[in-house]
């Protein structure tokens, strides 16, 4: 049994420094702050576009993102075209974000899509991709599924 109109509402992420993460997600994605509590022991922010939350940040963890444990593998954001991916890559380079590959790469399943793979300040793996992109660097892992994180 499926739900015909099912789609992702928002994604909640644990972060170690709320102010730092708010700055990062606003710079990279252009999100607005929809709601925020930054004092006391319950610190969080709702970020999104046009009043609709896309990402919620919760300052309630320590350390860095654990890629070897069950949970989130990565979070991908689709943009309309390759030019938008290039703009995101330029922003990522400007703010000194960790890029997983040197630039934009094709997805690994002979698709015409591709993107830029990077991490947020807590090591959470992120992707910005365009569904139709040509002239990209080859897929980093041949014969692998779409994701560029392995």
From TrEMBL:
Q: Which Gene3D superfamilies match?
A: 2,3-Dihydroxybiphenyl 1,2-Dioxygenase, domain 1 (3.10.180.10)
Q: Which residues cross the membrane?
A: none
Start and end of every VOC domain? 7-131
Sorted alphabetically, the keyword list is:
Lyase, Metal-binding
List, alphabetically, the CDD domains matched.
VOC
Q: Which GO terms describe its molecular function?
A: lactoylglutathione lyase activity; metal ion binding
- Name recorded for this polypeptide: Lactoylglutathione lyase
What species is given as this protein's source? Planotetraspora mira
């Amino acid at each position: 049994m499926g739900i015909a109109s099912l789609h992702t509402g928002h994604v909640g992420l644990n972060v170690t420094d709320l102010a730092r993460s708010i700055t990062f997600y606003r710079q990279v994605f252009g999100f607005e702050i929809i709601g925020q509590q930054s004092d006391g022991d319950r610190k969080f922010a709702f970020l999104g576009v046009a009043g609709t939350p896309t990402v919620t940040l919760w300052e309630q963890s320590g350390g860095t993102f654990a890629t070897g444990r069950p949970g989130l593998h990565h979070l991908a954001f689709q943009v309309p075209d390759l030019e938008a991916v290039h703009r995101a890559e330029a922003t990522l380079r400007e703010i000194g974000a960790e890029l997983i590959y040197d630039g934009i790469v094709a997805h690994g399943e002979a698709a015409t899509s591709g993107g830029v793979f990077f991490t947020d300040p807590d090591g959470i793996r992120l992707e910005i991709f365009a569904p139709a992109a040509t002239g990209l660097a080859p897929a980093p892992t041949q014969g692998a599924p779409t994701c560029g994180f392995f």
